[in-house]
Each structure stands twice: as C-alpha cells, then as structure tokens.
Amino acid sequence: MLKNIPIQISPELMKVLMEMGHGDEILLADGNFPAYSYGKKVIRADGLGIPELMEGILKFLPLDTFVDFNVIFMDNGLDEKPKIWEKYIEILENSGEKYNYISIERFQFYERCKNAFAIVATSETALYANVILKKGVVK
User: Fold this and answer.
1) What superfamily in CATH does domain 24-134 come from?
2) 110 is a catalytic site residue
3) 36 part of the active site
4) Which tens digits make up the pLDDT trace of 80-96?
5) For the chain, what are the domain ranges?
6) Which one from 24, 30, 38, 64 is the annotated catalytic residue?
7) Could you tell me the pTM of the whole model?
8) Contact at 8 Å (CB) between 109 and 6?
C-alpha cells in the first residue's frame, strides 16, 4: 500500500499511466465496449464506473495541451447527448487540467481506439460513456 493513491487506481493501471508518453491515449470504456477486440493492452476495472475512475486518473495524468482536443467522447448520433458527459465535464473542470473535448461518430471512435495505448474496461452502465484521454507533459 502507498499513501494518497485513490483506491480505484490499481497497481496495473498506475503502471500503465506511468508507461504512457506524451500524446499517448487511454480509453476508459463502458461495460458494453468490445475492449478485447480493440485493445492490445486491456486493464480490468470491474465494479467501477468511469466517473470515479476518471477522477482518480486525473490526479496523476496531465492532459495534452498541444492539441486541439485532448478528451474525446463517443457520439451517440442523437441531438440529446448522454447525461454522463455532464459528469465528465464537471470532473474535468474540478481537475484543474486545461481540456478541450470533442465527440466523434461511433465507428470513427472505434478506429481511433485501435491505436490507444491501453483500454480500461469498466463496469459503467451508461450508454455511449466511452471517453479517451490524451496524455500531456508534466510541467
């Protein structure tokens, strides 16, 4: 055990966050996402939802400020966007990180996930809750 590590951050996840370099992306995947079909490195986060996981990760992971968008949501194709996005934005606001988000169409999102450094497979039940975080640099 270590001090001040949020309980939602497993040793495997912390190792992956430390291995990531500037510009690498990590996908926080909902329970419906086909993680093993897309990910060369999948980390299980059973029993956790994406909001609490994102909150813990952003204590350690700087977001990339050298790109137009450092947070990417999977779009549902509807005018009414998933409610969970509001929670994500609240977490991002409270993180102190500079962020810009975009949503991209489902199949474009799947294509982008093929190049993710890692996929964290959660038990999130909200639909279209998948989100990509792009790692920045420590200043």
Assistant:
1) RbsD-like domain (3.40.1650.10)
2) yes
3) no
4) 999 999 999 999 999 99
5) 24-134
6) 64
7) 0.96
8) no
